[in-house]
Amino acid sequence: MFRFLQxxxxxxxxxxPATEDCSIDVGLPRPLGVxxxxxxxAGATLVVHxxxxxxxxxxxxxxxxxxxxxxxxxxVVVSIDYPLAPADPFPAAVDAAYAALQWAWRRRARxxxxxxxxxxxGEEAGGNLAAAAALMARDRHAPRxxxxxxxxxxxxxxxxxxxxxxxxxxPAACPLAKGWCGYLREPAAAEHPYATPGRxxxxxxxxxxxxxxxxxxxxxxETLAYARRLGEAGVxxxxxxxxxxxxxxxxxxxxxSPDRSWTEEVGARFATFLAxxxxxESVDLA
Length: 286
Known about the structure:
Helix 7 links the parallel strand 7 (about 210-215) and strand 8 (about 235-240). Residues about 1-15 have low confidence and may be disordered. Helix 2 packs across helix 4. The longest helix has 24 residues, at about 260-285. The protein has one domain (about 5-285): Rossmann fold. It contains eight helices and eight strands, in the order βββαβααβαβααβαβα. Helix content is about 35%, strand content about 15%.
């Protein structure tokens, strides 16, 4: 049973538990479930995280692997249980993502510590929401983001890249295609940059980005294409391609396993990016 965050883990912000399930009221029809990882401390960063599931599935539990990697890298992580399609198609999830981001910004000192830099992160469909929330934050001039972390993000519903074709996940039976169909119920939605960030025409002014994919990831090509376009728009960007086999993006929603060698590499990339982008944010605010 979720409790309101204001009455649970924020009641004693100096003693945040390793994880805490709560709910928050951000002005939407229903409260959002959240899970908080990490403890408030000096030098911590704050990451708002969105799980995968092709927009139609997933939960706080399925997002735990990535959320824990972010927490182990030194962040306080607020993982969001956003509305799922087809019951709640676009823009329900992205509206929830941006509302959660605003909520975290207003409470960043209580959640992570005074002066904590704010990041957004997500894998697969959650990577789409993280990218969209970063676009919204830029367009609406708030909140101030120190960075965005996108793992194997779903950015383009066409699913026509070479990496998708090589993965034998053609559009007829591909779970990614089914997810897109459930999310984009109206044809016009596919043209909206908040629904399909990979098609956004204006990328300048976005927060610094870390994009991670894998050689055997069907979303590899669109991930790298987005990284390239961000760089061309003047956005500081880091990208990394994990060697195969990884099983991405499906395994990102499964429990962590010691035989997955990529977790150490991904955790190291998280730590480096959080420290670098967080330091840049501190300098900018000084």
